[in-house]
Structure formats: structure tokens, C-alpha cells
DNA sequence: AATGAATGAGGCTTCATTCAT
DNA sequence: AATGAATGAAGCCTCATTCAT
């Protein structure tokens, strides 16, 4: 019923158009007709590739998170240093969003415009990324570089919240500066906190 | 044109109704008619107190943040201990949202469903709270309890992001546990970070 | 939620417009916009008086059958003669539809354009009319004027089917002749059948 | 432009698929795509055999009525007994629809979902069957078994209406009982009417 | 100040039909 | 003959906002 998704240029075109249009106008100000026009297809064509409008949102997130998770799974494998791992974690995330303000805008801002039903799906999609964060934390504790006193969930929220907030601030102020240049300081704060005798050089 | 707002019970009723209805159904599933019915007024009456639907959103945030800022302004005045100040910062925020899931749902989730124009206003409203965060950080640095290496903006985002993420997770999972009980650990992570030799007991 | 229905001229206007538009164009070629325009109201207004498009269909039928049933309930009360009763049965039905081709077209033709869900409701609405037919048949059998050999359901279908078919033919050929003038012959055939030694004068 | 229809298995396949899909889902819930899938052909292929969707509807009816008329033409030829002829008339009709609920559903219910243009064509198609009914009536009158007082058109409508109503009731209640078993009583009522001194045993 | 009936623009989605392959 | 991806018109319905009372 739904046309072949992968390896199809129209599928990609619609997804890219959606990222752009939603990123700039917001989910609820992005009519299908606008997305279709941006993608260069007819309105009806969108429904050959996506079940409905929500499906577009979900698909974008899936692709974005999927990319990040795949890269991290690969890069973190066999990496022992927890601090280096954390840095990779942040870097991959920042790189993915920091080089594409539309995607960042989409992920950080408009994705929030979802109903309860969708948030459930979103939660499922993001879970693998959370799992990776958790494993980095665990790695750090095992190496006795991160304190064992840490509450896993709260620590994870600190890490994710700090990145989230940083990227959101960046994109909402116009993505004018280089997001990647903030990585050292972001990691520094994460590791050392406010009291901060971190091992940063 | 707009009726006297302050000290008007209908103004309050509409605001409370909006928090409840939007908090539970979401901004885009919260027709004015529903809010009006919940508030016990006619649809048209809403427009005697608010310019439009967005104005309701903004007003709720203004009241909520206003309450928090007012309390903090008062409580932090004359408080020297930066760590105690940070704890107040978190506590007041958590108390305000943690005792009212509708407000939390509204602030953490549905408020995000806004367009560019609104986000500008939202930014303005939140600014005073950011200022307070900044002053607590500055206080800690001055007392040489927080490391001077801190980048102010990033640190602020770490603090805000951690709280934000924690409350969002709490409210999205159904507000089933006691949010306030997390305060010590949240502060702990903020102060000590991952490496964590914090001064928490 | 739905505005006061009875005694409301807009409710009547929409219903009449719907009968006219649907009667002429068919249910599936009668957009709400056309009905609204015919009724002299805005599209949205229709939804203040009816839950949805199907509700309009149901309501028309309810009103039409209701009128017929009410008249028959009254007229047949205390009437002993089964043949006279049958004649009233046919007459009231023919009068109601025969003086209003749009209603006839609606009832005989377009009402059939319904889905399973609606047909259930339609069945419920028509039931009282069937009950009246049944009681006339029973009356005739009790008076030994109708043969007791009759199968109730099949007889009812003969009566209803004959009227239905006659009116449908009349309306589909343009309602050019006087439907009421057929009443004697219709009753005659019903009473005497093909073999026909009926008691008609 | 239109492919050779007769003796083409795809033509038959589409027609059968259409009967099934429309019979179960209704004309307006039976997209061409669904019919095509059921028939095992591509959407576009349907248009090689049928001018448009309406043409499918018309064709089904033509085939169905054609079958009935062909059988009756053959069977009634040389049959003198009007009552036996009537019985054949009813039996063939009931057999054709009674052994195939999808066809019955199609003919009795969904075929009604047509516009003015189509009804004209439908009328043309059914005409031969009406002619047969008329000839049976004439045969009965000539044999002085049916009363000569009969109005031809109204009598025909009684016969057709009774069958129509009976089959519709049968199919709409789920085709749960044996339609054919009703034939005697249906004929009985047709012949004797309500007063009923029919010659049925 | 308050009401709530009325408006009408706009969005999502379906689907009959076409046409390049 | 056959395919099925693509089209785009059209329809139902929602809801923010207005305005006569």
C-alpha cells in the first residue's frame, strides 16, 4: 500500500521538504500542500509514501536518531576511555544537528508539537540513544572516573538536557555561531559540574 | 477593549481552565469553546480578557514564571551560600511545577507548540529566571565554590536543561512519583557533574 | 453542543435545503457546501445543528416517518374496518410523499445510499411504520376479512414493497401524474392479489 | 480502446471482484484499487475493460439481469400455466440472488447508490425483466386466472416490489435463512393478496 | 460586561483516472 | 495488453474570531 520507501528519491524529497518546511514554519503551520510543493510532487503523492502527516514527523525523527545511533554504535565500540566516549556522544549529536539547522529546528522545537499518541512513538525511537548514554555513564563508573554515587536516570537527564538546551538555544537564536566549538565546554560542565575539578586540560 | 485583567475572577477562571484543558488535551486540541466551558463563561467572554488564543498561552507562562521569580527574588535576597541558593532555585521550580501536573504538562510540553512569534515572547518572559540562575552561578564563582572556569551561558543551560529534562520525564510518565524527592540528587549532579566530588552530604 | 433543534428556523432551513439538494443531486453529489448555500447559511453553521452529514439524512427520515406515523396513529385509532384502515395506510403514505417529490426522491432513492451503520439506524426509524402495517394486517385477519393463512412478514413486505415500488416509479419518471389517483388500484391489488376477487366497489 | 470484453478472463475477474468488494463494502467504499487488487490486476487494467467506475456497476447489473432474463425466456417459453409461470418468475429471481449474497447485496442495496444518469441506464437494463413480468400477467388474464380488472403497471410493481422487499430484508438481516423456502408464501400473497382465496395448495 | 450563534477559511485525506514505461 | 506511480480535484469537518443582542 505504501510505496517502497527506501532508495526512492521521492521519499527522500518529501522528507527533506518536510524538514525544511516544518523547521521553518512549525508543524502546525506546515500544510501538506506546502510540503508537497517544496518536494515538487502533488499533494496526493505524499500519501503514497507516508500514512499521514504524523508519519512524516515520526519518519524524520527515526532517520535522524537512526543516523546518530548508528554512528555512535560504531564509534563507541571498543572505546575504553569514558571521557572520550562522552565527547564522542556529544560530538556526534552536535555534528548531526549543528550542520543542519533545519533538522535541529525540527528536532529541538517542532517535534515537541505532538500529541500523547505520538510522544509514545517518539519515546520509543529515542530510547536507543538513551541506552547509549546510559552505557557511557556505566563505563565511566566502572572505570572509577565517574562517581558511583550517580543516579543513572538523573545523570542521563543532565547529559541530555544540557545538550538539548544548548542546541535549542543555538538554533533559536539563529544558528549564528559555531555549535561545535562549544563541545569542550559542554563536556567540561557535564563532567565537572558547577564545582568542577574536571580533567579537562 | 480588553477588560481589566488583574483582580478579576473571570480572568483567573479562564487562565486556570486553560491550564487544565491545554495541559490535558494539548494546545491544538484545546478549542476556545472548551476552555470557555471549563471556565464557566461564554466563548466571546474569553476575548474580553485575552487578545487571542496565543495571548492565553503567553499569559499562563507569565503568571507561572512570575510566581517563581517573585518567590526566588525574595528568598535568595541576602542568602550567601551558593549551594543553598542553587537548592532554592531548583526547589522553587520543582515545587511550582511538581505540585501541579497540569501546569507542568503545560509548561514542559504544550508550551513548545508555538510559532516563531510566540517563542520570542516566551524568551522575554523566561529571561528574568535566567538572570536569577546567572546570579546564583556568579555568586558561587565569587565565593570560589563554583569553578571560575565556567562558561556562564553553557552552565546556565546545564542547570536549566537538567531541570527541564527531569520535570518533562516526570510529567510525561504520568507524574507518578514524588518530583521533590529528586531535588538532592539533581543538585548533586549539577554541582559535581559526572566526576562528582560534590559537597553534598 | 448541538444547538436547540426544534423551533429553530435554521434547523428547518437546513433540513429543507438538504431534502431539495439531495433529492435532486443524490447524497454523494450533495456537498455540505451546496446544502448550506441553499439554506442560506455558512458551511460551518450546518454543524451547529447536525453532528455530521449522515445525521442530516437520518434526521430527514425521522421527521418524514415521524409525520406519517403520527398521522396514522391518530387516524387509525378506533377505526374498525381493516380495508378502510389499509386505505388510510396507503393514502397517508402517498400523500406525504406524493405532494413533495423532493421528499419522495429522497426517501425512495437517495436514502438507499447509506452504509451498514446508517441502515441500522434507518431500520430503527422505520420500525414504527412497520408495526402499524402489522397491526392493520392483524386487524384484517381478526375480522376474517384477510385470510389467516397470511405470513405476517411476507405480507408486510408485499404491502410495503408495492407502495415503495409505485412511488419510486412515479418519482423516477418525473412525478408527472397524480400519485394519489393510483390509491384505489394499489389497494385493490394488495387486497385481491392477482387472482383478485377483492371487495373493491 | 476498450479491450475485448467477452470471453476474457480478466473481464470476468474484475466483475466478480467488483461484486464482492462492492457487495461487502458499498459502492462508495469500494475504491477501484481495492477491486483491482481483489481481481489480481493493476488499477490501470480496469480501465482497459471498463470505461469508468459506473460502467462496472452497469455491467454487473447487465450480466445479472441478463442471466435471469435468458433463463426465464427459455423456461417460460411454451409454458401455459400462469401460476406456474409466476412461480418460475419468482424462483429464478430468488435463485439467482438467493444463492449469492454478494450479488444480492449489490443489486438490492448498493446499486441504488447511483445518480440520475445511471438510473436511466439501469431502467433500460431492467426493462426486459419487466416485459417478462408483464407477459406473465397477460397470460394469466387471458387464461382468466388473474382478474382482468388488473392495472398492468401497478400489478407489475406489486410483483416486483414484493420480491424486491423480500430479498432486501433477507440480505440486510444477514442472509441467515433460506430465501428459497419463502417462494411458496411469496407467490401465495401475490396471487391471493390480503383477501386471499388463492389456488395454492 | 457578557453572551453564543454564526461565520468561512483552511487542513487532511481519498480516490477516480491518466500515462509513461 | 498491462502496469502502478502520480495526479489534483473535491469533500468533510474544525475552530478562532466576530458581532448583534
Automatic annotation (TrEMBL), chains A, B, C, D:
Chain residues forming the annotated DNA-binding region: 31-50
Domain of life of the native organism: Bacteria
Keyword list, A-Z: DNA-binding
Residues in HTH tetR-type domain copies: 8-68
Keyword DNA-binding applies: yes
Keyword Cytoplasm set for record: no
GO molecular function, one term: DNA-binding transcription factor activity
Pfam family, one: TetR_N
InterPro entries xrefs: Homeodomain-like_sf, HTH-type_TetR-like_transc_reg, HTH_TetR, Tet_transcr_reg_TetR-rel_C_sf, Tscrpt_reg_YsiA_C
Gene3D superfamilies: Homeodomain-like, Tetracycline Repressor, domain 2
Listed name of the protein: TetR family transcriptional regulator
The species this protein was found in: Tumebacillus permanentifrigoris
Amino acid at each position: 500500500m505504501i510505496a517502497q520507501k527506501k532508495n526512492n528519491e521521492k521519499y527522500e524529497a518529501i522528507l527533506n521538504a518536510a524538514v525544511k518546511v516544518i523547521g521553518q514554519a512549525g508543524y502546525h503551520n506546515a500544510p501538506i500542500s506546502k510540503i508537497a510543493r517544496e518536494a515538487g510532487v502533488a499533494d496526493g503523492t505524499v500519501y503514497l509514501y507516508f500514512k499521514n502527516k504524523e508519519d512524516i514527523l515520526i519518519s524524520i525523527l527515526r532517520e535522524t536518531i537512526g543516523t546518530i545511533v548508528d554512528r555512535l554504535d560504531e564509534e563507541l565500540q571498543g572505546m575504553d576511555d569514558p571521557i572520550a566516549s562522552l565527547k564522542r556522544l556529544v560530538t556526534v549529536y552536535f555534528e548531526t544537528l549543528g550542520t543542519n539547522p533545519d533538522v535541529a529546528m525540527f528536532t529541538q522545537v517542532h517535534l515537541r508539537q505532538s500529541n500523547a499518541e505520538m510522544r509514545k512513538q517518539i519515546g520509543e525511537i529515542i530510547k536507543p540513544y538513551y541506552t547509549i548514554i546510559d552505557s557511557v555513564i556505566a563505563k565511566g563508573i566502572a572505570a572509577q572516573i565517574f562517581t558511583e554515587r550517580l543516579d543513572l536516570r538523573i545523570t542521563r537527564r543532565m547529559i541530555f538536557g544540557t545538550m538539548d538546551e544548548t542546541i535549542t538555544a543555538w538554533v533559536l537564536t539563529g544558528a549564528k555561531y559555531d555549535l561545535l566549538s562549544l563541545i569542550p565546554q559542554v563536556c567540561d560542565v557535564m563532567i565537572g559540574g558547577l564545582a568542577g575539578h574536571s580533567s579537562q586540560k
